[in-house]
Amino acid sequence: MLPSRLTNHAAMTANRIVDRALAQAGVRRYHYALLAALEEYGPASQAALGRRTGIDRSDMVAIVNDLAERHLLERAPDPDDRRRNIITVTAEGLGFLTHLDRLVADAQDEFLAPLSAADRRHLLDLLTRLVEPRD
Amino acid sequence: MLPSRLTNHAAMTANRIVDRALAQAGVRRYHYALLAALEEYGPASQAALGRRTGIDRSDMVAIVNDLAERHLLERAPDPDDRRRNIITVTAEGLGFLTHLDRLVADAQDEFLAPLSAADRRHLLDLLTRLVEPRD
DNA sequence: GCGCCAATGTTGGCTTGGCCAACAGTACAT
DNA sequence: ATGTACTGTTGGCCAAGCCAACATTGGCGC
Fold first, then answer.
1. How many Cβ atoms are within 10 Å of B121's Cβ, its own excluded?
2. Could you tell me the fold of the domain covering B3-131?
3. Nearest CB neighbour to A11, from listed B7, B119, B124
4. pLDDT in single tens digits along all 135 residues of chain A
5. Which residue in A3, A129, A132 is closest to B108 by CB distance?
6. Which nucleotide across the nucleic acid strands is nearest to B59, CA versus C1'?
7. Could you state, in order of their start, the residue ranges of all structural domains in chain B?
């Protein structure tokens, strides 16, 4: 079996499990990525969040819309730079993120279920080396 | 870093390398998958090839068209079952597949470059366990 | 001040992949 | 004979990722 195919297969397995978990909360992976980035970096503009999450700023519009409609974050114009919107997680959004964190953590555990703790550490080490920038 | 995200990242790295290699020959991954399946299983109907490669039979039509136009395979009606087309690799197709095999093998090597031979074996073992069917 | 360039949010569109429905033609079991 | 299942094909839908264009705004040099 080709290593690249095996890696793809494993990624698809992980995605299936994680997506199913997130679907229980009615969100997609990019919603989770955005909320997580907001918690990690604090309030930021849509463009900055896009850079951090790898989401195109044109796609970011709809994602922020989704979460704002559910009152999980707020979009407010930046008084210091009227081009920007400042995106802030609401208290409800923080609680929701905690819930998502739990769902995702359980999903990771399900994904890695066939491996021992030592195997898991080793896998993460190997994968990390594969994705590190090359020269 | 979440294991699922790490696995996805590694898969994207692999895909980037493999796709770039295949693009040198002007084919996509599914073209290679089809040719490889044909070599492995011998001539078969489009539906059977679709089942083996995971390609939908409606998408298979265009893929066979692509490769038939380049004379890498032949599409002939099955005299024993007039519903079926029998797909056969041409001699030119076999030579081309050999070339692709070489490109893909080099791509695997590039993908795994950061790992020692022992690490590679271990990685494949771990990934294999992750994709094996669960109960 | 003016002029120019860059950044931002937004809309719209394009492409790729994967999936499904429908259909006509064919095989096959009952 | 009749119904059921399979095949190839066309057509369409949807999700993701990407890019172009645009108006607005900021910041720079001069």
1. 11
2. Arc Repressor Mutant, subunit A (1.10.10)
3. B7
4. 999 999 999 999 999 999 999 999 999 999 999 999 999 999 999 999 999 999 999 999 999 999 999 999 999 999 999 999 999 999 999 999 999 999 999 999 999 999 999 999 999 999 999 999 887
5. A3
6. C18
7. 3-131
